[in-house]
């Protein structure tokens, strides 16, 4: 699938072009999704007492919150190819808001587990975010665009950890008891999700030249059923070993981030005997690194591509993953609060840069099956979180031991990045496309200004 008139420059403070509206709406929508997806995580100490949950049961709810996302991410990319990212995002946000608001009716482990399972579908929003910016931006800036929108979206993992305890505290201050307070607090992100879904439909379009329905009617975009059907697209992605290598890589970076989002607050609460608000604030620092860290991963991916082409992008991905694994194992050894916070920030930096580097490579794997590739690789993040979840549900394994083993797994997974290779023809074509896009970006003209 070839999309014309992609933007060759990110005009950060502009909303005039469809590319930049998609850029800003996609990161904001993904950011809001974190409030629904992980809004309950910083409140788990209260929920644990209210519902009488054991560590194993909490671990099972953590697994449930990311397990269903694996399946939804696999199909959401294909849905983007079929109906376009605009409609896909609208439906996901509006429907996803329902279980977020309804989790307040949970009165047992079983109903709470089912609610977190249903909410997990919201995590598929990441694939739509990456898909939308991939079709809107040219090869010289697509790594930066993908990394920034995903990073600012992932920033929601940090702001959620900080804001949700404050929302909860505000409700309790009104005279509501804690058992009812956490339930009412979850209504807030549900409402915001629904409103964001409506805004996405109103303010964005699928591609630079219009929506998919319009482009297909004009003969500018093939119907997926006629040229590359959904089954064909998915099959092509499934048979590509590079896709599965990136699946493992993304499992070891974004999967780790999801795991930290789920356990960080209760880890600091229990390990260092902090109050709920302080533990949430410290846990939020991990996610707040997304303000710039994932963007840095994409920027470095584009810079490595300038001098090393697609091989340079892969080389940078390997470096970021290797450093993430080392930093995570260091974090697991920290015994004092100050050192734990410091090494957590270093670990967070490389984790999020690795995520940005991953989706600096994804758009070049198979352009005719972009949705399928993005969906499978994106699902890898949640598959990694599910696998990591089993480390933290065991009563006999401490959180620090689980984090050390997780770091070792990341170290091993980093070598999968080296399996991503491209043919000489593709390398030459993408080098030429990069040079053309960079040259266009450097040449002021009315045509570029229109982008």
UniProtKB/TrEMBL annotation:
What GO cellular component term, any one, is given? plasma membrane
The record's subcellular location field reads: Cell membrane; Membrane
| Pfam family membership, one | MFS_1
Checking InterPro entries in the record gives: MFS, MFS_dom, MFS_trans_sf, NO3_transporter, NO3_transporter_NarK/NarU-like
Membrane spanning segments where? 21-46, 58-76, 88-106, 152-176, 182-203, 243-268, 274-293, 314-332, 338-362, 369-391, 403-420
Report the PROSITE patterns cross-referenced here.
MFS
Q: Which UniProt keywords apply?
A: Cell membrane, Membrane, Nitrate assimilation, Transmembrane, Transmembrane helix, Transport
| Superkingdom, natural source | Bacteria
State whether keyword Transport applies: yes
Q: Output the GO biological process annotations, alphabetical, semicolon-separated.
A: nitrate assimilation
Question: What GO molecular function terms would the record report?
Answer: nitrate transmembrane transporter activity; nitrite transmembrane transporter activity
Q: Where is the Major facilitator superfamily (MFS) profile domain?
A: 22-425
**Listed name of the protein:** Nitrate/nitrite transporter
List the lineage, top down.
Answer: Bacteria, Pseudomonadati, Pseudomonadota, Gammaproteobacteria, Oceanospirillales
